[in-house]
Amino acid sequence: MADKEQQSFRFSEAPIWDLQRTYYEEQGMKAWNNDQVPQYITSNPMIATAYAEMIFGFLQDRAGRGEISEPVMILELGAGAGRLAFQVLHELCELRDYAGIELPPFQYVMTDLALKNIDGWRNHPAMQSFIQQGMLDFAQFDAMQDTELHLIVTQRTITSGDLEQPLIIVANYFFDSIPQELIYVGDGEIFECDVFITYPKNFDQLDPSVALEEMTLNYEYRRAPEYEEVTYPYHEVITLYQQELEDSHILFPVVGLSCLERLEQLSQAGFILLTADKGDHRLENWKFAEPPQLIHHGSFSLTANYHAIQHVLEQKGAQSLFTTHHYKNINVGCILMLETPKNYVNTRLAYRRFIERFGPDDFFSMKEWVDRQVDTMELQQILAFWRLGGYDAEFFIQSAKVISNLLPEASDEEMQDIQRGIHLMWSSYYEMEQRYDLALDAGLLLFEMDMYEDAKQFLELSVQADEDEPVSTVLYCLAICCYELGLEEAALGYTREALVLEPQHEEALELLKCFE
Q: Residue 112: which H helix or E strand, with range?
């Protein structure tokens, strides 16, 4: 690239997309370490619960139509760190078991382009029970071109018309990260916006993330009458833009729409789309839109054009559900591309209850405030917000020290609620590539509450999982747990281990005297 410091491309064919692809292929699961690529907002227990409730409502609707023999496939596009898939399956299974009603079986399929990610999901300890039950499978899928799904575990290939039930498509942070066209509307005419890239020095030697951040993008405009032709597949929405918009830059999701059309062919009965993104479904939000800016986070993202997706699918008979209030951080939608979509009452009611009334965007806005206020909160407030967020591990990590400080004034009932919350949190905890010792925090808190049996369980998990040498304080706490539980031999063993690491550990020396 040394002799090509500047170059012009059609936006959807610019090298930014190849760099994005290379970044994910090279990084694999490490891309989400330290939230380098954001994942929490679309992968926390709140949004997983909302999705599970809508999927459960859909299963009820299919059962109400007598369609219970064939399985329903839930296909996640760009499943990222894998946290959302695990939490949706966990919650969905709990809903199914609690309801105890007849439903069609379901299978969750996680997809991505990067094989490293697929290997990471397949080998993740949290996924194994779902795999063994035949409830979870994986597939490499290229949104640009693939028309089939090759399932890795069952070695089954899904081709056109193979699915008798509608397909459920989950697409979080997906449409904003795949190639899009960039058009400009001015004076009632459509222009293509080509991107004029200025490359940094030594471009070929830079890591993809660095190259993306250091390149400069400018735009050139050329008339593009092909968009205005009646034969253009999305002619109706383009005509709408010509009529309603002026001086507006539009990211147009040709690849995203094509991907949905190819996936629709897999089922004989249509699909529903559950999606969350930085995306605008209101036409007025595209008026006078400036040229797009890449949002850098290791890779990059843009704004998803939900308006175009909604408009195109509604022209084909779909019903779209987006919130009537304005979103701040993330827009969550449900599009039912089905025959008689209004008959899917349970699905639509679930959207109303878990997205429209109070949803993931509302929760995230509250969490940003709570994170700043947690040091001033009382225990009941902390516990209430923890419950609201589905016993989220991230919030527990942030608030564990505050909870510890509040324990001297805690009632027995509050401590029992903490104990129960820890177990519920652990049951749905998905460990990320960048490991955090959640078991240690949980164990120490339980130890402070004199809940020795539970504390022992979590502290031993921490010691077993920690690749480094255990800390003498943790071993001493384990010794006390065992002593209080009448496990004197184990207590003596942990005491001696603590003293090997810290021979002058006063509490351990005192405990040792109890065994003499």
A: strand 106-112
CB-based burial label for 242 (10 Å; 0-12, 13-18, 19+): middle
Per-residue confidence at 34, pLDDT binned at 50, 70, 90?
low
> What local confidence, expressed as pLDDT, does residue 398 receive?
93
Residue 367: inside a domain, yes or no?
no
Give the containing element (helix H, strand E) for 325. none
Separation in Å, CA 320 to CA 168, 181, 264, 272, 324:
14, 23, 16, 10, 12
Alpha-carbon distance 454 to 489, whole Å? 19
In this structure, is the dihedral angle defined by the CA atoms of residues 49, 55, 61 and 65, taken in order, positive or negative?
negative
Beta strands in 181-286 (DSSP E): 181-186, 189-198, 216-223, 248-252, 271-277, 279-280
Domain that holds residue 155: 31-178+256-357
50-83 pLDDT, tens digit per residue, is 999 999 999 999 999 999 999 999 999 999 889 9
In a domain, 71, yes or no: yes
Whether the CB-CB separation of 253 and 319 falls below 8 Å is answered with no
Structural domains counted in the chain = 3
Query: pTM of the entire structure?
Result: 0.93
Give a yes or no: residue 26 inside a domain.
no
Report pLDDT digits (tens) over 388-444.
Answer: 999 999 999 999 999 999 999 999 999 999 999 999 999 999 988 767 889 999 999
Same domain, 316 and 397: no
Cα–Cα dist 516/513, whole Å: 5
Q: Which of 249, 270, 297 is the last residue of a domain?
A: 249
Number of other residues whose CB lies within 10 A of the CB of residue 453: 10
pLDDT band at 262 (very low <50, low <70, confident <90, very high): very high
